[in-house]
Amino acid sequence: MRSLSLAWRNIFRNQRRTLFTLTAIMIGIMALVLFDGFVRYTLWGLQESTIRNGLGHLQLATAEEYFTTGNFDPFRYLFTDQEAIISKLQALPEVKNVVPQVTFSATLASAEKSGIVMVQAVPVELARSLLSFRQIVEGRDLQVEDRYRVILARGVAEKIGAKIGDTMTMMAITRNGGLNAADLEVVGIATLGLRELDNMQVFMDLPTAMEFLDITSVPLLITVLERTEYTGQVKEIITQAFNGQSGQPLAVKAWDELADYYQQVQGFYGTLLQIIRFIIMLVVIFTIINTMTMSVLERTREIGALRALGTQKGAIIRLYIAEGLWIGLLGGISGVLLGLIASSLINNLFGGIYIPPPPGMAEGYQAFFASSSVTVWQNLLLALAVSVLASLYPAYKGANLKIAEALRFL
Amino acid sequence: MVVVSLEQVYKEYKLGKTTTPALNGISLQLMEGEMIGLMGPSGSGKTTLLNLMGGIDFADRGKVFVYDRDLENMSDRQLAAFRSRTLGFIFQSFNLIPVLTAFENMEYPLVLQGIAKKERRRRVEEMLAAVGLTAVKDHRPDELSGGQRQRVAIGRALITGPKLVIADEPTGNLDQSTGKAILELMKELNEKEKTTFILATHDPMVASYMKRVLYLRDGLIVREEEG
């Protein structure tokens, strides 16, 4: 306790120097709070666009392999009691919708050009909840009574030169191995925000797809939840309550297990944040070491006197660590506060910052700073840890001064 | 009773490539209740001698015993505890803790000894009265005069009731009358409490208060006078 009060007074001895040290920590922590908020917002945006672009929160299939190779051979994995599973899922309060889906690859041809596409077929009345991030940029959305009509993703329409009202021919393998072909009318062109999806996705209603493929059930049930945070707990419930009950085995995957791109971006930003954090903290550490070593030097005689009076080495070390603790606390709190104020100013006054399209994205976006309580605690602890760490060397130096020499020091 | 005993003590300082001998095989005994003055020109080894007795510096050769304890064989931790319990240090340049008030500076050695707050307060108030600083007890060192500062330093050195007080030119920075007042205080303690004092000084006036004066030159005792 004594060290803390003595240390508190000591840090105000050379106010200008303390202010410089505090400013270094403050700016460093503020930068980290802002960057952390930016990463959080960006990842959150990517997460929601991933989920609401057709991935859903949880996907159920009859086998693990479906998630890797199912699109090329959906017929092997068809549910046998799909209705029973859907009604059980619908009974969970966290579940918003259960969307049966079949996805298959097909060749789509106009009069001149053709290309391989991925057809996603869901009931039209449920499409909006699953694909809420899909934007119709031309034409219209599918309606419940639409049959043999499709929406093309923008990249697909450009590749094969399709316009609204055009008729396309779709060819694909059906359940019994034969090749089927059908004429489809293009009613809309859409974008999903992710370039990768925009270049291959085609949407149609589920009854048409089932008729075309000659199937009576689907290989995939997509669950959309009320909130993304429920994903983990609902996955747990499904795995525990459903397995073994139905005749077929059940494989459940959460959205983040299926979103490779999201995982990559998350990993990328995570690493970036670590590197920036490391560099900023290194600068802060050296600033603190520098000022504290200076203060040890200035207080050499005083340390000598304290030691001559019978103060133990450990108490000198504690004194300097306590000074580091105070500096970290003051710098950390002011840095976090400043970061939060700056975030809220940019969010509310300037309406965010425009970010041009990142790699793989179709469009730029307006970025906000989504700071959380985790940001606050993490950065506060970081400031404390770094300051204490930085004070170790000066503390050790001070404690090991030779007393007689320290007292002679001018 | 022997308080300090030095046997054939040598000490030299290295400064770059030159070595300066500070103590040249000095032997000395200090008895309880003595008040000894050390005189001699600068560099004659006064401060070194005091540092060795206080366990804040160590001899190159020879033995230093304080209360029959060989200081060389004690750990840093033991030495710190020994200084806190047995010794009182007074420095020429006061060496008060600038961020602490006069009261807190005097209280500090009692905190080191782990004495309870109430008892600390009683003893500090008593000592403040004894050195005549009650009126300025809440002032920090930079708000005190030189004489007041040295009285704080003396209060700090004496508050634990040390058996041996080591003072390096305690009146060197003070005017004549303040210096005298401080010496009177020490003399009183020496007579009442049998506290042993050893003082290094240049000042013949200070020496006149001592029971015994040792004259040092080139790290050796060259003359001894009874006061």
Q: In a nutshell, what does this entry contain?
A:
The complex is a heterodimer of chains A (410) and B (227). By secondary structure, chain A is an alpha+beta fold.
What does this structure look like?
By secondary structure, chain A is an alpha+beta fold. Chain A has 2 domains: 2-49 and 262-408, no CATH class; 63-249, no CATH class. Chain A has helices at residues 2-11, 15-55, 66-69, 82-90, 124-130, 154-160, 195-198, 206-213, 231-242, 255-258, 260-298, 300-308, 313-349, 373-399, 403-408; strands at residues 58-61, 95-109, 114-122, 135-139, 149-153, 167-173, 179-191, 201-205, 220-225, 251-254, 353-355, 365-367. Chain A is elongated, with a radius of gyration of 31 Å. The model of chain A has no long low-confidence stretch (mean pLDDT 89). Chain B has helices spanning 46-53, 76-86, 102-112, 117-130, 146-158, 176-193, 204-207, and strands spanning 2-15, 18-31, 35-39, 61-66, 69-70, 87-90, 164-168, 196-200, 212-217, 220-226. Chain B has a 6-stranded mixed sheet, sandwiched between helices. Chain B has a 4-stranded antiparallel sheet with strand order 2-1-4-5. In chain B, a hairpin with a 2-residue loop joins β4 (61-66) and β5. Chain B is globular, with a radius of gyration of 17 Å. The chains are: A alpha+beta (410), B alpha/beta (227).
